[in-house]
Structures are given as C-alpha cells and as structure tokens.
Amino acid sequence: MLKIRNLTKVFNIGTINEQMVLSNLNLHIREGDFVTLIGGNGAGKSTLLNIIAGVYMPEEGEILLAGEDITKMPEYKRAAFLGRVFQDPLMGTAADMEIIENLAIANRRGKRRGLSWGVTREEKTKFQEALKILGLGLENRLNDKVGLLSGGQRQALALLMATIQRPKLLLLDEHTAALDPKTAVKVLELTQELVEKNRLTTLMVTHNMKDAIKYGNRLIMMNKGEIVYDVSGEEKKNLKVTDLLEKFGSFSDRMLLA
Predict the structure, then answer these.
(1) Domain 1-73+170-176+201-258 sits in which CATH superfamily?
(2) Could you give phi then psi for residue 219, rounded to 5 degrees?
(3) Strand order across the beta sheet in which 2-11 lies
(4) Digit-coded pLDDT (tens) for 104-144
(5) What are the residue ranges spanned by the domains of the chain?
(6) pTM for this one?
(7) What is the mean pLDDT of residues 195-200?
(8) Among 45, 65, 128, 221, who pairs with 229 as Cys (CB 3.0-4.6 Å)?
C-alpha cells in the first residue's frame, strides 16, 4: 500500500541551523498493516507523517501510495484518500459547527460538491449508526456544537471522521498523548476496533512503548532519521518494554520513552 524509497528531508538548508531529519529512509507497508512507530524526540517520526501527508516536501526520494506516485502531490489533493488524527484534539474538528456538520464534511472528502440539501436522511442514519460504535452517546447529540465536547469525545469524533470514507492510509500522530490515561485507553480501543472493522492500513506514532507493543501487527523504531528496528508477527507479540529499551542501547533520549 505504501512504498517509501530513499527519502531525505533537511530543514534550514544552507544555514547554521541546517538539520537532516530523515536520511535515505526506505519503508514498505503492506495493505492492512497496522504499524506502530516509536522513537525519541527528534527521531523523525512526525516529520515522516508530515511528508506522507504532503505538509513537507522531501529533498530526495519518492512516495508511492497504492502504486501511485504522490511525492509532489499537494496536501489538499492527498486529503481525498488519506485520513489523519492529530495529537491536539482541537485540530481534527470544527468547534463552531455541529457534530452532524463535521461528519458531513468528512463524508464528502474527495467527492464533488453540489447545491443539494446539506445532509440527507440516509446520511443522518449513517452518522447515527457510526456514532453508536463510539459508545459515547453522541448519536443523540447530532446538533450539538463540537466545541461543547470533552477532549476525549472530540478525539473519538476526529477518529471517526478520519475513517468514515475508508482512507487508503490512516495516519495517527500521537493521537492519545494529550488525553488523560483512562480516556487514552478508550480512544486506543476505538482505534483498534475501527481499524479492524474497516481493514485500514494504519501508521501510528506513539511515545508509549506499551501501546506500541500492544497494538498493531508491526512495530518500527526510528532514531536520528533512520529505521533502526522493524519487527512483526510472533516476535512483536512476545516483545517486552525492557526488550525495546535494550534495542535503544546507549541512545541519549532512551529515558524519554519509558
């Protein structure tokens, strides 16, 4: 589903602050893979997601999604077939719009827009059924403004919006980091349920090594812009946090991942 070849990204080129964030990175993700991505601060995790999403353009390399070269495709065009949930719950939803309006926008992603009535009866039924999966009672609050929801409710809604059109690739950028532990567990469980139900190819960045081991079928570790560890299957299932700490060896930022 995703092929990244020789990807290089450098910030502040030609200045005293020049920094190579990704160095000749290669990554292949199969359709249906749920990949967790870990690494210390500055490892290049979020930069990699931003390049896949089209926020940044690489200096070198190419990105193929489902066989199509999207390396130079602008961000707004990629949004038609990529789903993304950000770390900040406020970024994935429109606070001044109703829940039903937010879902309607997400449901029209990549489609032609016309002058027909905003939300059809069929769409309303579809949204209510989808919201029931969240188990938060939001199916009975379709006309509430999203700004009235808690951070966890907004993040769950953002997750639903990102997956409602079954994207080719779902990008999760530490999407539970800003939530309290109990809410984070709930959102992660919803994430797994939606990914499995829709068979979504997913790349999830996390700082939590327990979550990286528990969720997904493949784990990738990055350090200084390179992939230093890639594990899947039974080997991943049998991993322990201590195993990952050992893999980091003498990396200076290993304690940030505890």
Answers:
(1) P-loop containing nucleotide triphosphate hydrolases (3.40.50.300)
(2) -125, 135
(3) 19-29, 2-11, 60-65, 68-69
(4) 888 887 666 654 556 778 888 888 888 888 888 888 898 99
(5) 1-73+170-176+201-258, 82-166
(6) 0.88
(7) 90
(8) 221
